């Protein structure tokens, strides 16, 4: 998808993003986040705790998605980062997630991270698993029955990793 | 090891434990925690953020170690718990870690957790890996070069898991 614009996510951006965030966690299909999380907790989780959070918009300024980037661990584990990506419902299937992941890898290298790790890619989210694999991530572990999916019940999660 | 006494960890217990906690993180061999963490941050990490924290003492009241138990994720991942265990330097090799892990599994079941997951067992910590395996944990993933070990440089970490 061409002509995407990445900017550090503001509180105003997050306010626009919030209905999509809420819908994604309420679906209980992809994120291990409480489905009844409130706005302030979500804002803290997505925009304040991470090292960086970006909004992605089209040329008209329409918000398409957002991602955060943070250290996955501290101290001797601090060279590995972790990201989470969400695409707005109206912007799916247009390469927004791919563009966000590629952007996040550039930012991670600029921040001197040496690897990126996803801790909980829900195994039934095959579109995401395939996309991350296309982008060079490997499944380095699978935790059985670690996610209680709204439709499928207990499903596995994958740990995915890429050296940067 | 017989006659161990487990009690919810108090701030006074943590104050006694602090030199051992500090030595363990400064060693940079087993925990992905900043080696320059201060007391209050360590207390928050070990005793306030977790769902439960236990001190283990001998019959004379001497502190031998401590562990925390918390949910490893939220929402659809909230049925899996995570623990961290530390044994005081003077109490190593006496079965304290084994006793703590067994105790933590009982507490986890009481709290209705369905599984226990360790996210970052340092691969060079072969004593711990073997002990967790003896206690029924499986290595379900290995993340390459995710821990910068003080003596060995970049080493792998294992994700370990046990259904409860």
UniProtKB/TrEMBL annotation, chains A, B:
<protein>
    <submittedName>
        <fullName>GNAT family N-acetyltransferase</fullName>
    </submittedName>
</protein>
<dbReference type="InterPro" id="IPR000182">
    <property type="entry name" value="GNAT_dom"/>
</dbReference>
<dbReference type="Pfam" id="PF00583">
    <property type="entry name" value="Acetyltransf_1"/>
</dbReference>
<dbReference type="InterPro" id="IPR052742">
    <property type="entry name" value="Mito_N-acetyltransferase"/>
</dbReference>
<dbReference type="InterPro" id="IPR016181">
    <property type="entry name" value="Acyl_CoA_acyltransferase"/>
</dbReference>
<feature type="domain" description="N-acetyltransferase">
    <location>
        <begin position="4"/>
        <end position="164"/>
    </location>
</feature>
